[in-house]
Amino acid sequence: MDLGLDGKVAMVACASSGLGLGVARALVSEGADVSICGRERDRLAEAHGKLEALGGGRVHSQIADVSIDGAVQRWVDGTVAEFGGIDVVVSHTGGVVQGPVADFGPEDYRRAVDTALIPHVALVKAATPHLRPGGRVLMITSEAVRQPMPHNVLSGVARQGLLSYARNLVHAFGDSGTTVNVLAPGYHDTTALRGPSGEDTSAAAAEVPLGRVGDPDDFGALAAFLASRQAAFVTGALLLVDGGNTRAPV
Fold first, then answer.
1. Cβ neighbours of residue 161 closer than 8 Å, sequence gap 6 or more
2. pTM
3. Residue 248 lies in a domain
4. How are strands ordered across the β-sheet holding 9-12?
């Protein structure tokens, strides 16, 4: 299937590893020109090299901490200077501190909102003037938006606001043909799950009905489809990508 992404320009936040890199790989492989950002220079350079080695679209990378509005704006400006415009925006953020509700006070929730919600808003706001008609906005959040997760309360609370923001963007962008969708991943085989020591994922896999954790490349393939011309009538959707782990009703 030709996704119609050849020559399109995509921005993928936090793409030096994990789900962001999986999305960037899928888009580059489909011929899109992809701009990625990350906070760590060495990891970003390594990701850039891996993407270029795929032999698809062009690659631009830039150091940017998405929690800093000015850094996001500079990344957008650098992308536009390199590629001339934007067709696809994939917003993504770092994780928040885990723990039960009793562990946290108001300042913890403020920090969680600044980490897990505001960067999405900042990227979309900065990219909007350059977003071509028929564009795609994809926001990567967490399965915590669909069911309470007692060990991850800050994530659930902070990310809930993203759903309301996305729904409002659906109407704001509708006349231009731009779609807005939210992806809610569960356990995936990333450093966020394995930790710095590369821990085994079997405990997480045991919780998932499919019996395994997700593959970032499978996640990337879904994101690429939503960015494609075939998904032009899919907007305002929240798609769980969790192997059936969420117990809340669909």
1. 113, 117
2. 0.95
3. no
4. 59-63, 33-38, 9-12, 86-91, 131-140, 179-185, 238-241
Q: Which domain does 91 fall in, by range? A: 9-241
Provide the domain count of the chain: 1
Within a domain: 4:
no
Place of tokens 């075939």: 230
In a domain, 128, yes or no: yes
Identify the CATH number of the domain in which residue 91 sits.
3.40.50.720
* Torsion 126-14-218-188 (CA) sign: negative
pLDDT by residue for the chain (250 residues), tens only, comes to 899 999 999 999 999 999 999 999 999 999 999 999 999 999 999 999 999 999 999 999 999 999 998 999 999 999 999 999 999 999 999 888 889 889 999 999 999 999 999 999 999 999 999 999 999 999 999 988 888 777 888 988 888 899 999 999 999 999 999 999 999 998 898 888 877 767 878 888 898 999 999 999 999 999 999 999 999 999 999 999 999 998 876 6
Sign, Cα dihedral of 64, 122, 176, 250: positive
Residue 3 maps to a domain? no
Q: What is the DSSP letter of 244?
A: T
